Amino acid sequence: MTAPRTKARVAILISGRGSNMTSLIAAARDPAYPAEIALVLSNRPDAAGLARAAEAGIPARAIDHRRYPDRAAFDAALDAALREAGIDLVCLAGFMRILTPGFVEAWAGRMINIHPSLLPLFKGTHTHAQALAAGVRLHGCTVHFVVPELDSGPIVAQAAVPVHEGDDPDSLAARIIVQEHRLYPAALALVAGGRARLDGGRVVIAGAPPDGALLSL
Fold it and tell me: pLDDT per residue over 22-60, tens digit each?
């Protein structure tokens, strides 16, 4: 008899309230979901998401980056905590730290991030203001594998929303966060379930539509 497949053990890294973290935790409550949220870590002890994770019964702790002399030392502590917990996959969810190349390479192919734009457009911060300044008609969010170059990793999935006349960064952000909360759990399921795989610098998704994207308007 074949043993049942073990769910992927996932850690979520946060710096703030953890709204995307909450959507991942909610999705993982489904017995059919291919991942379990095994750990939540934050670089900020005052991050509101830590309490939300603990209330959901998820082990949660802070590793305060200010207690370490440099980024490499902080990343080493982060890596040790992940390995101690037997983590398979890492999800960045509003984690406001630039990770060192060594840490990223150690978790290559096993760490994903959600970014509030349709990459490769509008990398970095203030993406909604960037989109409005550029006059684009579609804006959205992207889940991608993390590579050393900021917001440049292979794309797993994207969701788009129309940009309306009269939008400001806050109104645009409000529509996009709804899509983020739908997209991230779906993308994690693809990765954890083995349906999304890296092929060179691209992501190949088994059973995906011809364009290989998850696109919501």
Answer: 999 999 999 999 999 999 999 999 999 999 999 999 999
| Contacts with 21 (C-beta within 8 Å, 6 or more apart), sequence order | 12, 14, 40, 49, 52, 53, 91, 93, 94
Q: Which tokens go with 54?
A: 């603990």
Catalytic residues: 115
The residues near 163 (Cβ < 8 Å, ≥ 6 apart) are 131, 132, 136, 137, 138, 139, 172
Task: Classify burial at 29, counting beta carbons within 10 Å of its beta carbon; exposed 0-12, middle 13-18, buried 19 or more.
Answer: exposed
Distance between CA atoms of residues 11 and 58, nearest Å: 10
What are 73's two structure tokens?
């030392």
Q: What is the DSSP string of 115-127?
A: ESS-TTSS-SS-H
pTM, full prediction: 0.92
